[in-house]
Amino acid sequence: MSRNGPLALVFHTLFVTFMLAPILVVCWVAFTPEGFLSFPTDRWSLRWFYAIARYPEFISAFWRSLWLGALSSAIAVAFSVPAALAIARYRFRGREAITALFMSPLMIPHVVLGIAFLRFFTEIGLGGTFVGLVLAHIVIVLPFALRLTLASAVGLDRAIEHAAVSLGASEWTVLKRITLPLVLPGLASGWALAFINSFDEVTMTVFIAAPGTETLPVRMFLYIQDNIDPLVTSVSACVIVITVAALVVMDRAYGLERLLVGKGADGR
Amino acid sequence: MRAAPYLLSLPALLLFAGVVIVPLVMTVLLSFHDWGQYKGIEPVFILKNWQEVLTDSYFHEMFWRTFRIAFFVTLLAAVLGAPEAYILNRMKSPWRGLFLLVILGPLLISVVARTLGWALLFGGNSGLVNKALISTGLISTPLPFMFTETGMVVALAHVLMPYMVLAVWAALQRLDPQIENAAVALGAGPFTVLRRIVLPQVMPGILSGAIIVFALAASAFATPAIIGGRRLKVASTLAYDEFLNTLNWPLGAAVAVLLLFALIAVVVGASRLVERRYAQVFG
Q1: Using the beta-carbon criterion (under 8 Å), do A4 and B90 form an inter-chain contact?
Q2: Which of A10, A116, B73, B191 could bridge to B156 as Cys pair (CB 3.0-4.6 Å)?
Q3: Whether ipTM exceeds 0.85
Q4: How many Å lie between the alpha carbon of B142 and the closest alpha carbon of chain A?
């Protein structure tokens, strides 16, 4: 394999600048000492980070997003374990159709899902409730949970389970002591990917969140729609730092490439 | 045991039947209902909304804009993302892993935060992007980015770029470096190798990346809403307006359903075309 020439490295530098510029700019502006948007040069200040504390709606939206992500991802993983075992181990009529159905939230534009959920939840009396948000988020993060659970279920060595059965273990014991522990790493990474997707989701949630059940990205979006000021940059900077920290942890634990290339390889 | 797989997938099947299929069917039905300023939604079966969406020039212009933006986003992502994936693939560790993290990482950072970054960079005539472009001598007067299609294309290309890099990267992993070496040994120059050996082999990756980027760009919401402001509408922001400001839900539902069907047609059609084209080559 030959090396990259100087032209390729110039292109690469420009490309990385393009990818990082908007993210770094948000973090930079967040440190402004002024009352308006400006790039701090000689004077830096944390005033806009302290200011977040005076806006309880951002704080409560943050905790809501955290709980929503944790809860809906956990439930999505719980739904995807039996489904993944069925898809990985059996060849049955309708297998492809069922898999496609479970993956469909990736294909359907989130704006369409948002509209469909808004109409549906309003009709059944769940409009603007946290329960509605959880239901909607379970559905949109399930493909991520299922894909990673499926990957570990497919890679599972059936001989270990057969050995346990021949040694007299009951079906329940095999499931509890052999199968689940073996797919656990897949479950954990599926949960993490599902959590991040739930935590970042804005397009669908903006339709079904009411004042009082807004998630952090929705709160940020609605705030930006009205005006862009340094406060929203400091909130965004905090979100960016948290995400990057989670990213580094996930990269160390599972390898981001594995997590994401699996994500890109079959179409998303 | 023949029922086992069905029993295992039953919980998720019930969930999807109740929370995906029923709401989607309800939305399609909603698009045929009537609506009035004072009477609200009337559950009758009429074609008024569909007639309006399909014949009114306002909607034509809006859908045309949506797909034009998606096309240019796809083009930009392919022209920048594909070479970058190739360069990335030729790097040595630890640079390769580090830059892969830097380029794919933004995928997981909130879209709202990333778009805010572009709004700050574009910010009026004195924005950093314009300052940089003028200082390099590429332009002499500031270009408008905020509230324009150009701004939307740049910001969306940034938001969706990781998907293109991922798709091309995945295709590059299947490439046998010995073929490149063989071409060089037979006297091919670097440009010929790229054009005759590498490009044809990663083309399926570029095309599948393009399909993903196009579909996501045409249905993107937060970025067009923030960069486009209240006037420059695309399909998803228009549907949002109908639902949460005008409250004409049936019309909004018609826009959303049309967007869904148009996208399904484009994605399925393009995938078929790609598969047929490459089935001839590899099959």
Answers
A1: yes
A2: B73
A3: yes
A4: 19
